[in-house]
Amino acid sequence: MEIKIIRTNAPKAKPDQNSLGFGQHFTDHMFVMDYNLEKGWYNARIEPFGNLNLHPASTVFHYGAEIFEGMKAYRRPDGEVQLFRPEENMKRMNNSAERLSLPLLDEEFALEALKTFVNMEKDWVPSAPGTSLYLRPFLFGNDETLGVHTIHNAKFVIIASPVGAYYKEGLNPVKIMIETRDVRAVRGGTGYAKCGGNYAASMRAGDRAAAQGYSQVLWLDGVERKYIEEVGAMNVMFLINDTVVTPALTGSVLPGITRKSCIELLKEMNIKVEERLLSVDELSEAVKTGALKEAWGCGTAAVVSPIGELRMDDVKYQIADGGIGKLTQKLYDTLTSIQWGHAEDTHNWTCKV
Ligand code: PLP
Ligand code: COI
Q1: Which of 300, 303, 335, 339 to mutate to test the pocket of ligand 2 (most atoms within 8 A of CB)?
Q2: Tell me, what DSSP letter sits at residue 189?
Q3: Is the pTM of this model over 0.90?
């Protein structure tokens, strides 16, 4: 399918690279493509960034028929721009689409569209340390009827935002609240899908945590409320003695691409990694005995983010000395040097646009 290109005649001024924040600025264009059950995907275009005009009965507003992805374009030292494992994001997007009965994408075409779009917005990829162009592909149902039925019409859109660090703390340790009242996902539900509804339902707990000075919520499993799952926007890893333990992908956890990459990098460093159930009791015991050496979160937006303190109800667990752990730092350095093209990519994870 051909991608029609309509350029803006009013390009915006670029924001200051040193105070980008996260998701506050948007580039000049966006990619849009429509879907209809009879026609399939059609009308692929890159057009000036702007509001979407949607019918008030559109399915997305009423039944939350929406999925999204998060990925980044990085400015290499040689000035070129590269993506990190974008095919993994497209694969996950289709897994999410399948879960929500939204139309599947042709992954190859979606990747081509993404690359064409990033190429067009190349000047928007910042070069200051730690910055990147965050890419947000999203797909939603927009049937103009209130009946609950399979989607006949949908849209796939990609927008882009130059970003700095996700947390205001930067690489400094964040404080995380273990949530004991709400649950994020249950097996058989939508936990493994990247759908908007998962995030909407998590905001109440996030607000409660924020009110007490915590950056995000750590979710427990929805059945026994005993096993650690993931943080609001990242997977979690714990260095217990000399083994990295991370919750297994049981269906209620998002299969993070950063998580997968970290596991591969850790194994290459000859560090033992266990993907398994990890209970809060085991973790609190590990804090008490000093076996818990480091904890970090990992995700596209958050990269590798050290956790300095975990709190559950009134109990606070400080992780080691509350600083950045040695392995956390090494993992951050190893991963980011591949993503930003400072080290040779021996894994074939990156692709230039
Ligand atoms: N878990 C949740 C709930 C997330 O929103 C994210 C962010 O995308 C992740 C984990 C990490 O996934 P990834 O590394 O693919 O960005
Ligand atoms: C990402 O890391 O891409 C995420 O999706 C986090 C986001 C919810 C802000």
Answers
A1: 300
A2: T
A3: yes
